[in-house]
Amino acid sequence: MPLLACERMAGDSYPRPFAGVDEAGRGCLAGPVVAAAVILPERFDLPGLADSKKLTEKRRSVLEPLVKSQALAWGIGVAWPGEIDSINILRASLTAMCRAVGVLRIPPVFLAVDGNQPVPLDTPQQTVVGGDGKIPAISAASILAKTFRDRLMIKLDVRYPGYGFAVHKGYGTKVHLEAIRRLGPCRMHRMTFRGVLPGETSKEEALCLPGI
């Protein structure tokens, strides 16, 4: 659903330049969690901008270059499966967000973070549950994180064939779970997630807080 006019005003009171921050791939069984940070100008032309999960792959591919060309700054941060297993998915997601903010060529004075967990930075910030559908800068970040991660999973499908990464992007689909049972997990799998190792229960369920 497109952002409503009243929702667009939700970030108008933030000091500028502020960055919207979001992640993609938190619930996957394989691949990294990817975060993006985006600083939009006060005026922009991004028709149909919305939460990346509400957009088709085609629409995301159209919006991605528009976001990059109009943004004052944008950055990507990644946390790989080994790190996810080591520090848990919550901390890995927040770490990826910190990395995305850290590579912005314009230091933001404020962060608008999707979800209910603040990132461990000294920068003033506000968490916004459902922010990817309310704050344009967060919506833009969600699109960059999703499109970057999808392309990465397509490349990983070539390196680790047989799992179908290019199709399901690492999510726990029936096809993916069957491939894990048949081939065993590869280096891109999150060993602490349920469904990856036989008989293992997820150590992450209590850490997957809503909206992060």
TrEMBL record:
Domain RNase H type-2, first and last residues per copy: 16-205
Cellular localisation: Cytoplasm
UniProt keyword annotations, A-Z: Cytoplasm, Endonuclease, Hydrolase, Manganese, Metal-binding, Nuclease
Keyword hit for Hydrolase: yes
Cofactor(s) this protein cannot do without: Mg(2+); Mn(2+)
Manner of cofactor binding, per the entry note: Manganese or magnesium. Binds 1 divalent metal ion per monomer in the absence of substrate. May bind a second metal ion after substrate binding.
Binding of a divalent metal cation, residues: D22, E23, D114
Pfam families: RNase_HII (PF01351)
GO annotation (BP), single: DNA replication, removal of RNA primer
Gene Ontology CC, one term: ribonuclease H2 complex
SUPFAM superfamilies reported for this sequence: Ribonuclease H-like (SSF53098)
PROSITE patterns: RNASE_H_2
Main location: cytoplasm
MF GO annotations: manganese ion binding; RNA binding; RNA-DNA hybrid ribonuclease activity
PANTHER family registered for this protein in UniProt: RIBONUCLEASE H2 SUBUNIT A, RIBONUCLEASE HII
Entry-linked HAMAP family: RNase_HII_B
Stated role: Endonuclease that specifically degrades the RNA of RNA-DNA hybrids.
Protein name: Ribonuclease HII
Organism: Desulfobaculum xiamenense
